[in-house]
């Protein structure tokens, strides 16, 4: 079975369509105004009809109000909500029941103990995203091109769906998958020419590399 891929921080329909063509499962859209990939609700609504139908749409939020998350779900017809803030474990369930979406909870990792934090969220969500903790000075919890030691995840046999994120690139995704045992990966900076500037060539290279891992 090939690795599932989420391309995060999409701001242009052409990158969404390219990612779909090369086999991405998910496309991520960031709704966080400190991010160079931030989308407004107006941007999202304008893009909605130009997006591929073969991929699942994920909206990313950092401590946003439930009303705002609902508006974003409507604007972009989101299938998933990814929570990157200080949510309490069953907040995901409340959102899921209100919006009828699937939920990803992001967990920042730098030590093995951080991975255990997922245990209290896992019963309430559809997937966990293990991402690197932000480096000092960053004003956003994700999308920092920062990785954590992938072998923290190896041999864990975690009983819930999870994705690996943080500092992945077309060059390192093979090693990252092999060391961590991930079945799904997420990338943003590694397929960009600069913060918020996605590269079609890098999206293609990443998807080819991830899909080639056995
Ligand atoms: O991408 C952002 O700017 C962002 C801002 C705030 C919260 C989350 C954000 N991104 C989350 C993602 O899912 C990224 O793909 C993930 O953190 C990996 O990013 P990168 O290390 O840049 O590949």
TrEMBL record:
A family per Pfam: PRAI
Catalysed reactions listed for this entry: N-(5-phospho-beta-D-ribosyl)anthranilate = 1-(2-carboxyphenylamino)-1-deoxy-D-ribulose 5-phosphate
Gene: trpF
Record-stated family: Belongs to the TrpF family.
Record protein name field: N-(5'-phosphoribosyl)anthranilate isomerase
Taxonomic source organism: Kordiimonas lacus
Single annotated GO MF: phosphoribosylanthranilate isomerase activity
Region annotated Disordered, chain positions: 179-200
Residue stretches making up the N-(5'phosphoribosyl) anthranilate isomerase (PRAI) domain: 5-207
The EC number(s) this enzyme carries: 5.3.1.24
Entry's Gene Ontology BP terms: L-tryptophan biosynthetic process
Protein keywords: Amino-acid biosynthesis, Aromatic amino acid biosynthesis, Isomerase, Tryptophan biosynthesis
